[in-house]
From TrEMBL:
Keywords: NAD, Oxidoreductase. This is Phosphoglycerate dehydrogenase-like enzyme. It comes from the Bacteria. Residues 95-267 form the D-isomer specific 2-hydroxyacid dehydrogenase NAD-binding domain. It comes from Kribbella solani. GO terms for molecular function: NAD binding; oxidoreductase activity, acting on the CH-OH group of donors, NAD or NADP as acceptor. The lineage of its organism: Bacteria, Bacillati, Actinomycetota, Actinomycetes, Propionibacteriales. Belongs to the D-isomer specific 2-hydroxyacid dehydrogenase family.
Length: 310
């Protein structure tokens, strides 16, 4: 592999570097696995050869591409990159909210056409944002949007009031009845059986006309067929950083759909992010070598790190 984690030379560990094709040979006898390519599904294919594994670290917040039944039922500990992407993703979301309110896409089109067209745009002050997913990323999004003057609610598993970041948290299982409140809907939840196609045709239809949907979570949380119908009908707008299939195929209709902004799964990737990921793993590896408790342990049954207030 050419894209190797930086700064790991000081660890007292015998590293074997490989790509997906070489994983079967490299994983034999290995006690720990750093999954640097966090979209890889190769672990499932070589599981029979991974009998010595004790720990897998995934350099992503979401672990949906890694988990499978045999791993869930095993004693292997899974950790993730919780905390690394929180602030960058929150900044992306704030930027998307502002770009939508200021009609930036239209401004870019007018500039390319060398057309001077004075317009009035919206203020984000007092706009309503519903953040679906109340983990670390969702909380950081909520804090930044509140600081910018938006009114924020969360949607999660546990309904509550008086949350320090979300104020009110409504039930994500009841999203259809709650979503009409929002001007901006931000998806920041992990991909699980409960969240797959959480945003479907009934939920999209329940959005107020002009609602702005932002997905920085996982593509399959949104029913893309229903989304296309909604944006093409002019019902909602969308900023999409994640998709069912990535890279998004060049002929996919979302590229040219009206009121849709497409980015290449990059909302959390600021300059230096690889160094931060490697440093986080190195810290956990030192803990592992010293027999100390690991940080960011994922509940493999749930598919994320439980916080007690989701």
């Amino acid at each position: 592999m050419t894209d190797r984690p930086p700064g790991l030379g000081g660890l007292a560990v015998d590293f074997r570097y490989c790509d997906a094709d070489g994983l079967r040979d490299s994983v034999r006898g290995a006690r720990a696995l750093l999954l640097w390519d966090f979209f890889s599904t190769a672990v499932r294919d070589v599981w029979a050869d991974a009998g010595a594994l004790e720990w897998i670290h995934v350099t992503a917040a979401g672990v949906d591409t890694l988990l499978f039944d045999e791993l869930r039922d095993s004693a292997v500990v899974v950790t993730n990159a919780r905390g690394v992407f929180d602030r960058p993703i929150a900044e992306y979301v704030l930027g998307a909210v502002i770009a939508h309110a200021k009609d930036s896409m239209r401004s870019f089109d007018l500039q390319r056409a060398r057309q001077w067209q004075h317009r009035e745009t919206q203020s984000i002050l007092g706009a309503k944002a519903l953040v679906v997913g109340t983990g670390g990323i969702g909380r950081t999004i909520a804090r930044l949007l509140r600081a910018a003057g938006l009114e924020v609610r969360g949607a999660g598993r546990t309904v509550r009031s008086g949350d320090p970041d979300f104020g009110e948290v409504v039930a994500s299982s009841n999203l259809r009845d709650e979503i009409g409140w929002a001007d901006h809907v931000i998806l920041a939840a992990p991909l699980t059986d409960a969240t797959r196609h959480l945003v479907n045709n009934p939920v999209l239809a329940a959005m107020r006309p002009g609602t702005h949907l932002i997905n920085v979570a996982r593509g399959p949380i949104v029913d893309e067929t229903a989304l296309l119908a909604s944006v093409c009908a002019g019902h909602i707008a969308a900023t999409m950083d994640v998709f069912d299939r990535e890279p998004l195929p060049p002929d996919h209709p979302l590229w040219t759909a009206p009121n849709v902004t497409v980015t290449a799964h990059m909302s959390g990737d600021v300059i230096g992010w690889r160094d931060t990921l490697a440093a986080q793993f190195a810290d956990n590896a030192q803990r592992w070598l010293a027999g100390e408790p690991l940080l960011n342990i994922v509940d493999k049954k749930l598919g994320y790190i439980p916080t007690g207030d989701r």
